[in-house]
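Entry for the shared binder. Reason: the reviewer on the internal report wants the predicted structure included alongside the sequence.
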Amino acid sequence: MMKRDDMLKAFARQRKDEIVVAVYMAAQELTHISPSELNYTFIGAMGQGSSHALGLALGRPDKKVVVFDGDGSLLMNLGSLVTIGNQAPKNYIHCLCENGCYETNGSVPTPNSGNIKFAEFAKTAGYKKTYEIAELAEWEKQLPEILKQEGPVFVTLKVEPGETYPENFPRLYSNEYREKFRQTLAKS
């Protein structure tokens, strides 16, 4: 198992100009680890990260879209996998941070934690390629190829909390940052 912040740091080192959608704890950490006007971060809409990322991928087929979703969050919207598989956006990479709990809500265990094979759900739903990665070295090794692949791609990342980062809810809800995101997409 890898620390989520180490996993995000490894991604940040290889990031180019991808749109990154991150929810809940990954969103809080991403604002510190990889600040960018192409970060689309939010909380308060559990389960909607994959759907928001799909909309961005369909609206901007010229840009790679990477979503850092949570297992608890995805459980709230498993139907999105079928919609994503059906739409088959070539620029869509779905990274699932699997930690077996609803971390934001007090680390309450998810139902049937540890027994669910999310990558198998995604494969059956129509994702072109799926991965399950538990070690940081493997993530770092596979990431360049994952970022080049035609999507939709699904990556289960076995994670646990790392360092504690200051929560910045005003940043996540800020109209100013949403406007900067919109303007950056319009320019690129």
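Summary line for the report: The mean pLDDT is 89.
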